[in-house]
Write a structure and sequence with these properties.
alpha+beta; Alpha-Beta Plaits; 2 domains
């Protein structure tokens, strides 16, 4: 009887260990789907620009985290690689009227920006 209890206990421990390994592997796969990039935003001029660029980036499906820095004129973006990519994020920024990396702002969107948001 004691032997059966010990066998069941060992089996339960092994099963639990295998479940933990599977959970850790699943978490690793999720982490691998995230990517963090930095985007140059040389045309930003003010806090309103930061807000508009942040909104544009957040409008892209798959974006997980955004930090836009006016002083550094850059954005750090974390996104799910299964849902989006760097090109789509850059396009959203340019369509909002701002230069992103080496991609120029959409002319019509830029023309519609507030005067304080335009390059001097």
């Amino acid at each position: 009887m004691k032997s059966k209890k010990n066998n069941l206990l060992v089996l339960a421990i092994i099963t639990l260990a295998m479940l933990m390994i599977n959970i850790n592997n699943a978490d690793s796969k999720v982490i691998q789907k995230s990517k963090t990039i930095t985007i140059e935003l040389n045309s930003m001029q003010c806090d309103m620009c930061v807000e508009k660029v942040t909104d544009a980036i957040n409008s892209v499906e798959g974006v997980e985290k955004v930090s836009v820095d006016l002083d550094k004129k850059s954005a750090i973006v974390t996104y799910n690689t299964d849902l989006t990519n760097k090109k789509a994020i850059v396009k959203a920024i340019t369509l909002a009227g701002y230069d992103a990396n080496k991609s120029p702002a959409d002319k019509e969107a830029y023309d519609n920006l507030n005067p304080c948001c335009k390059k001097p």
